Amino acid sequence: MAAKPKLCYFRGRGRMESIRWLLAAAGVEFEEEFIETREQYEKLQKDGRLLFGQVPLVEMDGMVLTQTKAILSYLAAKYDLYGKDLKERVRVDMYADGTLDLMMMIALAAFKTPGEKEENLALVVKKAKTCYFPAFEKILKDHGEDFLVGNKFSWADVQLLEAILMVEELDASVLSDFPLLKAFKTRISSIPTIKKFLQPGSQRKLPPDSHYVKTVRKVLQL
Amino acid sequence: MAAKPKLHYPNGRGRMESVRWVLAAAGVEVSWLGWRRGEVPVVCWSALSPLGCLEGAVQGQTQFDEEFLETKDQLQKLQDGNHLLFQQVPMVEIDGMKLVQTRSILHYIADKHHLFGKDLKERTLIDMYVEGTLDLLELIIMHPFLKPDDQQKEVVNMAQKAIIRYFPVFEKVLRDHGQRFLVGNQLSLADIILLQTILALEEKIPNILSAFPHLQEFTVKISNIPTIKKFLEPGSKKKPPPDDIYVRTVYNLFMP
């Protein structure tokens, strides 16, 4: 029997959270090794497990994977969450990539000074409301289907739900002008694997707090 | 026959340059459609061989158009007309779709033209290499938009990252398998993006490859692939390094 995927990252969301979401959505159990000290990090580097000296790191199927987007694409392909052909795949890719950009802005904001952080997070909410959410609302409206691409659950749906929930943490009313996204959120949240991941006690991580930021700064010497 | 692909971006490198590189390498030529004058050269069809290398056999070239964004009005028109999924460029019209998000565009072209390895494992390895290289290229893309005082410091940072973090990895890959290409003994997206990045860095730091003999050899070999060689010649659609006009255009287009 194949060993469970092993994730190596800080104990927090950052660049690993989307990977946790996708594994969970696919119903795949995984283990986590949390980086807490500089020494641990240097050991990972010395052991040659980090291709470009960076985490996230995911070890699975006999491979040592780094680079968030490469890992996500691999998982999407492996668990059949990437559309049925090249045209569907590129749509899944675009939608996932766009939502990742938005979520990255949130992840990076945690490391800014308090004033900059507020400004950046306000910008995220603005971008969500003016660029991203309208795009997805229109996609759902135009085809009237339950899922973003090809009438089938895909990586793009997982990412969008993750992004919606993250932006709602910043502004609870952000979906007020997007009725189809509201329905989408309810629908995708009730998929059994995702419902499980959304319950307390799952491996979903909390928003970044000062302890998390301090740990990352210390380990990466930022 | 499918309509010609069309690239929408300012007249300069930025995030679209990787797309131009990959289209060119795949034997697909980008042709220039100026804002005030048009030019539509002869069209013939070309395809990369399944082995992924056009060694000494350059067939015809498919034409591509470029529409250069010069004014805010043009950008507004694209946005209002719902042509830009997330209101951003790059955007490439291809095969009846309007593709955005640079990585997605690159993946699509790579898939279409057999530049993504032979199976999922090779694909993922190529993807990892491309992602790393694009992180390095990002520093180059952002460089002209830094404050003048920060620009020199950033060149030092780029050089350090290249020499300490990225180049040793690729040098080792090439040394260990002794093959011409990074993955699976055939041309892939990883080779093209790495060459693009090396040449862009060399423009700023001419001796950047001095400690990497395999990368030096790689640079020569990949540059000599017929489609890439053509792209590297004057008169191709490869864009020059960003100048003040390009920087000003970008500010005018994208600043609120």
UniProtKB/TrEMBL annotation, chain A:
One of the entry's Gene Ontology molecular-function terms is: glutathione transferase activity
Q: Per the record's keyword annotation, is Iron-sulfur included, yes or no?
A: no
Lineage: superkingdom: Eukaryota
The record's CDD domains line, in alphabetical order, gives: GST_C_Alpha
Keywords carried by this UniProt record: Transferase
All copies of the GST N-terminal domain together span: 3-83
UniProt domain GST C-terminal: residue ranges: 85-208
> Transmembrane ranges?
none
InterPro entries, from UniProt? Glutathione-S-Trfase_C-like (IPR010987), Glutathione-S-Trfase_C_sf (IPR036282), Glutathione_S-Trfase (IPR040079), Glutathione_S-Trfase_N (IPR004045), GST_alpha (IPR003080), GST_C (IPR004046), GST_superfamily (IPR050213), Thioredoxin-like_sf (IPR036249)
Q: Does the keyword Transferase apply?
A: yes
Give the EC number(s) under which this enzyme is classified: 2.5.1.18
Return the Pfam families for the record.
GST_C_3, GST_N
Enzyme class, broadest EC rank: transferase
Q: Which GO terms describe its biological process?
A: glutathione metabolic process; response to caloric restriction; xenobiotic metabolic process
Q: Which GO terms describe its cellular component?
A: mitochondrion
Q: Which family does it belong to?
A: Belongs to the GST superfamily. Alpha family.
Stated name of the protein: glutathione transferase
Q: Which organism is it from?
A: Equus asinus
User: What's the name of its gene?
Assistant: LOC106845581
UniProtKB/TrEMBL annotation, chain B:
Q: Please report the stretch or stretches of sequence annotated as the GST C-terminal domain.
A: 119-242
Q: Name one GO cellular component term.
A: cytosol
Gene3D superfamilies found in the cross-reference section: 1.20.1050.10, Glutaredoxin
Give the gene name: GSTA4
**GO: which molecular function terms?**
glutathione transferase activity; protein homodimerization activity
Q: Family per UniProt? A: Belongs to the GST superfamily. Alpha family.
Q: Which UniProt keyword terms apply here? A: Transferase
InterPro entries membership: Glutathione-S-Trfase_C-like, Glutathione-S-Trfase_C_sf, Glutathione_S-Trfase, Glutathione_S-Trfase_N, GST_C, GST_superfamily, Thioredoxin-like_sf
User: Which named protein is this?
Assistant: glutathione transferase
Q: Where is the GST N-terminal domain?
A: 3-117
Pfam families cross-referenced by the UniProt entry:
GST_C_3, GST_N
- From which organism does this entry originate? Equus asinus
Q: Which GO BP terms sit in this record? A: glutathione metabolic process; xenobiotic metabolic process
Q: Does the keyword Transferase apply?
A: yes
E.C. code: 2.5.1.18
Q: Which EC class, in a word? A: transferase
Heme as a keyword?
no
